[in-house]
Amino acid sequence: MRNTVHLLVAATVMTSVGQVQAHYDGGRADSHAPISVMGDHTHGEGEWMLSYRYMGMGMSGARSGSESLSTNEAFADIPGMNMGMGTMKALPYEMTMQMHMLGAMYAPTENLTLMAMLPYATNEMTTKIRMTMMMDTMEDEFDTETSGIGDASIGGLYKFFDQGGYRLHLNLVLGLPTGSIEEEDYVPMQGKDIQLPYPMQLGSGSYEARPGITLNKQYQRWSWGAQASARIALDENDQGYKLGSRRFLTAWVAKPLAPWVSMSLAAYKSWWSDIHGAAEDLTISPMMNPAADPDAKGGQRLDIGLGLNLLGKNGTLTGHRLALEYKAPIHQSLHGVQMETDYTFTVGWQKAFGGK
Q1: Which of 2, 92, 219, 330 is the most buried (most CB within 10 A)?
Q2: Does residue 173 carry a pLDDT above 70?
Q3: Residue 16 has pLDDT above 50, yes or no
Q4: 232 pairs with which residues across the strands?
Q5: Which residues pair with 282 in a beta bridge?
Q6: Looking at 17-21, 182-186, 277-281, which range is the least confident one?
Q7: What's the pLDDT score for residue 293?
Q8: Do residues 164 and 20 touch, judged by C-beta distance below 8 A?
Q9: What percent of the chain has pLDDT over 70?
Q10: What is the pLDDT of residue 1?
Q11: Alpha helices, DSSP H only, in 186-269?
Q12: pLDDT band at 22 (very low <50, low <70, confident <90, very high)
C-alpha cells in the first residue's frame, strides 16, 4: 500500500512538472502583463526598453455610495450656495481624461531594473448648473479643459526570486510633483478664469511613495500574475492639501493563442481616500459644487479588463510589442456625489534592446 501511495505521488509530481514552465521565458507574448499594469516585469542585465502608452477614461452621470443617481437626485444631494434671491448648484456630469505616457527602463544588473515615466494629460469636464430663484428654476451647462505635463515617476524594480516559472519583484517608485495644481479656465458663474477643482488638476503637488510587489507565473500553455501597490502622498502641496492614499490590487490570467499573440483577463480592485486639507486658492464653494469638496473624493471600484498582447517575431517587427486593454467597472462605491466611471482603455507600444 505504501509503495502504491509513493508511486501515485511520484506520478502526480511528474505530471505537474511537465505542465510547469521550467524557466521564465521573457520572449513569450504573455510574458508582459496587460498593458494597463505598470512595473509588471524586469529586464536582463544591460537591457533597455522604451515604451509609449495612450490611456483614456470616460466618466458620466452621478453616484453616491453604491447607488446611481438621476440628475434631479444628484442636485437634491448638493446643499447649494445662497445667491441672495436664489440658490446656485453645480453638478459635474461628464468627463474624459486622456494621457500619453512615455517610459524608459534599464537593467544595470540581472536583479535591478531602473525605470522612469513622464505623462502628458488632457482633462475635459461638462458641468450642469441649476439656479433656483423664487418659483423659477433655470438650467445651463459649461465646459472646462486642462492639459499639460502630469506627475513624473522614477524608481526601480528589484527581482528577488526567479525559479520554476515564478518571478517575484518589488516595485520601489517615487512620484514627482511635476504636474500643475493651479490650472484655471473660464467659469460663467464667476465671469472669469478661476482655479478649477481637484479632478481637473494635472498633478498631486506632492512627492509620492509608490511601493508594490509583483508576481508572475508561467506554465507551458498559459500564465498568471498579481500585483499589490499603493500611492501615498509624503507631504502637503503648495495649496495646503494632499491627496488621500490609493491602494490597488490586480490579478490576471493570459493565454498565448500563437507565438506572436496572447489574450488576457484581469481584475482590478482600487480604493482611494478623501483629500486631506483644502486648496487655498480654490474659490468654488464645496457647498455648490461637489467637485470642490475634499470630503467627497474617496471610494472604491472593481474593474474587469480584457486585453490583447502582440509580439513581433520576424523582420523589422522583431521584438516590438503592441498591446491594448479595455476595462469596465462592475462595482463602484463613492463618498458623496461623484461621477461614475464608464470605461478605461489603454493602447501601448514597447521595444526592448541591448542586453547580453
Answers
A1: 92
A2: yes
A3: no
A4: 209
A5: none
A6: 17-21
A7: 97
A8: yes
A9: 94
A10: 40
A11: none
A12: low
Q: What is the chain's length?
A: 356
- Looking at the DSSP bridge assignments, the partners of residue 69 are 62
Rounded CA-CA distance 26/36 in Å is 18
Which ranges of 186-267 does DSSP label H, i.e. alpha helix?
A: none
Which residues lie across from 37 on neighbouring strands?
none
3 state SS for 41-60: CCCCCCEEEEEEEEEEEEEE
The residue behind cell 505635463 is 149
| Alpha carbon distance 354, 47 (integer Å) | 5
Predicted confidence (pLDDT) per residue in 248-271, tens digit: 999 999 999 999 999 999 999 999
Report yes or no: 184 and 193 within 8 Å, Cβ to Cβ: yes
Across the range 29-45, mean pLDDT stands at 96
Can you tell me the distance from the alpha carbon of 229 to that of 209, in angstroms, rounded to the nearest whole number? Answer: 10
Contacts of 138 (CB under 8 A, 6+ apart): 130, 131
- SS3 of residue 146 by DSSP: strand
- In the chain, the DSSP E strands lie at 47-65, 67-69, 81-82, 86-106, 112-133, 136-149, 153-163, 166-175, 184-187, 192-195, 208-218, 223-233, 241-242, 246-258, 261-272, 276-277, 299-311, 320-354
- Give the DSSP H or E segment for 11: helix 2-19
Contacts of 307 (CB under 8 A, 6+ apart): 34, 35, 36, 252, 254, 263, 264, 265, 266, 323, 324, 325, 326
Residues whose CB is less than 8 angstroms from the CB of residue 261 and which lie 6 or more positions away in sequence, other chains included: 29, 308, 309, 310, 311
240: left (phi over 0), alpha (psi -120 to 50) or beta: left
